[in-house]
Amino acid sequence: MNKLAVISGFTGMTGSELGKQLLKDDYKIVAFDNFFASSIESIKDIKSNKNLYFFEYDINSLKDMSLLKEFINNKFESFEIEFINCAAVVHTKHFYEVDDTFTTNVLGMKSFLDMAISLNAKSYINCSTSEVYSMESWSEDGMKEEDAVVLATAENSQRTSYATGKLLTEFFLRDAVIKNKIKGCSLRFANVYSSDELYPDHIIPHIISSLQKSNKITLLNNSKVNKRTFLHNIDSCSSILCLLKEYEALDGSVYNVGTKEEISMIDLVKKIAHKMNIKDLEINYEGFRENDPIRRLINCDKIKKRTSWMDTISLDEGLDISLKIKNKNE
Ligand SMILES: NC(=O)c1ccc[n+]([C@@H]2O[C@H](COP(=O)([O-])OP(=O)(O)OC[C@H]3O[C@@H](n4cnc5c(N)ncnc54)[C@H](O)[C@@H]3O)[C@@H](O)[C@H]2O)c1
């Protein structure tokens, strides 16, 4: 049967890489983005592909979504349809913005899910986040999907509004699956990065571009103690392709998607500086991000057991690719 993927947030870090992987896997794609946090630049290699239909649409616009639905209805009647929701207000500075994250991440997710159901789509992949682990984001074996989460409340930090919204989307998805309306799952990604990332607030592009200018870098005070894992977006997106091939796994479950390779922020800076041959590195600290977990370590055994997915790009390899691309673009 012909396969169609309908993807929101398509020019973002996840959507754009996912598009490349799905086109190679013989999917046709209908996709959109409103360029809230991205541009057409990120899909320049695929935007003329005859199997891609891209629209500048807003997930929160009733008019845009009704045009999208009409387009799919008219053109892809005999297709097996998979919905993948990547549209979201994501970056850390937005985590604290309740209105924005609620409208797009919760209401947008839900109306996109309702559209998938009304079009008899086969499945819906919901991009959630490891931010849902909130106050306790790590444990010896890594946080597991079934672990109860300890959420910061409004009294502690506005940041958790982002996580709470994403957690709610996992309930919507599961409810729809339990009621046999659609198949699907939610993915809790942890710290995804891409080699051609343009977003300067993200830690890896921030380190690389600072060290390209001089031997100095300014980090938040949190970085004195914080540790993180980093998952390359080639690997985060391949988890979606693996899940689409395992219909049984689309039972409303939540899956953690990340790596075990944990590194402190300071060691990350030193690693990148070493790769860039910077000898007299100077690290300065300024500012503090409230409620930022010291560690974020998740356990990914579940997705590995239920699908063929595994992470394939080590942090060293990922950074080497990032530096190569940065140097080429200079
Ligand atoms: N990057 C990470 O580390 C990470 C970690 C955990 C979870 N996630 C989740 O993965 C998903 C994809 O994130 P990403 O890293 O690709 O982020 P991204 O910001 O690169 O992509 C999100 C895309 O959604 C688009 N968008 C925002 N509002 C929209 C709207 N109203 N209508 C249409 N498009 C809209 C943005 O323009 C952007 O292109 C999100 O659901 C995010 O919460 C990402």
Q: Can you describe what's shown?
A:
Helices cover 37% and strands 19% of the residues. The chain has helices at 13-24, 62-75, 98-118, 160-178, 203-213, 233-244, 265-275, 301-306, 315-329, and strands spanning 3-8, 28-33, 52-56, 80-85, 123-129, 183-189, 192-193, 216-219, 227-229, 231-232, 251-257, 262-264, 282-285. It is built from nine helices and 13 strands. It has a seven-stranded parallel β-sheet, sandwiched between helices. A two-stranded parallel sheet has the order 7-10. It has a two-stranded parallel ribbon with strand order 8-13. The protein has 330 residues and is of the alpha/beta class. The mean pLDDT is 95. The structure holds nicotinamide-adenine-dinucleotide (NAD). Nicotinamide-adenine-dinucleotide binds at residues 8-9, 11-15, 33-38, 58-60, 86-90, 104, 108, 127, 129-130, 189, 191-192.
Short description:
Helix content is 37%, strand content 19%.
Name its key features:
330 residues, alpha/beta, Rossmann fold, 7-stranded parallel sheet, 9 helices, binds nicotinamide-adenine-dinucleotide
